[in-house]
Amino acid sequence: MTTEQTSAIPSGSPLATLRRISRSRPTVNPGERCEMCAEPIADEHQHVVDLRSRSLMCTCRSCYLLFTDQDAALHYRAVPDRYLWFPRFVFSAADWDDLQIPVGLAFLFRNSMQNRVVAFYPSPAGATESELPLQSWDRLVAANPELTALLPDVEALLIHRTDRGRGDFSCHVVPIDTCYELVGTMRQTWRGFDGGQEARAAIDDFFARVQSRSRPAPQVDRGSTETATTGDQS
């Protein structure tokens, strides 16, 4: 289309709107494409989980929206962008010991295909799954009923032991792709036995960003939850 033809397009026409949208699209890197439809995507894009392979797929906005229904009988799930923190989270050093995680970081999520909660902790080799059963999960949810809102497969409870001496913890609900971002960061920065200064600085920066994105988790009436649980058991 020539310059003369372009200038002749009425400003309110559908073609003019299409031109305006195409001009405002974010730039994309060569080869960066949606793994479902091959549409070019920007650096900042969303993800979908393949429930069968547990892999993350980079997607365009249109493909992402196809899988936002968490109750749909599909083997893909869109990863939300919700970040929550718990002002009243009940969790102690004894609870951490029950999880039997050998490092001070772990993320837990419900795997709907296996119908169980699984735990992973980051390591220099990547994400390592805890092979020990997590019987303490039910006790954790009973003490913190806000966790019932945790979406399976696409959200995780991220726990960070911030001070081994005092047994202080930070606990957040984060998108599952954020956990794998942390795993990748540790693989790139970990040095030696304890990770080194670069890894510790990267972890501190990561959790600062998580906290800045987080909002308080909606409060649940714990007394009502306990009553309902007792009634169900009877």
Question: Helix coverage percent of residues?
Answer: 25-40%
Would you tell me the overall average pLDDT?
80
Q: How many strands, which pairing sense, and closed or not: the largest β-sheet?
A: 7 strands, mixed
Report the sheet-strand fraction. Answer: 15-25%
Low-confidence stretches: 2-6, 225-234
Order of H and E elements = HHEEHEEHEEEHEEHHEH
Structure, briefly:
The protein is of the alpha+beta class and 234 residues long. Helices cover 34% and strands 23% of the residues.
What would your notes on this structure say?
It is a single chain. This protein is an alpha+beta fold and 234 residues long. It folds into 2 domains: 20-79, no CATH class; 84-219, no CATH class. The protein has 8 helices and 10 strands. It has helices at 3-7, 14-24, 61-65, 93-99, 136-143, 176-189, 196-213, 222-233, and strands spanning 46-50, 55-59, 76-78, 84-85, 105-111, 116-123, 126-129, 155-163, 168-175, 215-216. The strands form 2 sheets. Strands 7-6-5-8-9-4-10 form a 7-stranded mixed β-sheet. Strand 6 and strand 7 form a beta hairpin. The radius of gyration is 22 Å and the shape is globular. The N and C termini lie far apart (74 Å).
Entry keywords:
single chain; 234 residues; alpha+beta; 2 domains; seven-stranded mixed beta sheet; three-stranded antiparallel beta sheet; 10 strands; 34% helix; globular; disordered N terminus; disordered C terminus
Give the helices and strands, then pairings:
Blueprint: H1 3-7, H2 14-24, E1 46-50, E2 55-59, H3 61-65, E3 76-78, E4 84-85, H4 93-99, E5 105-111, E6 116-123, E7 126-129, H5 136-143, E8 155-163, E9 168-175, H6 176-189, H7 196-213, E10 215-216, H8 222-233
Parallel strand pairs: 4-10
Antiparallel strand pairs: 1-2, 1-3, 4-9, 5-6, 5-8, 6-7, 8-9
Helix pairs in contact: 6-7
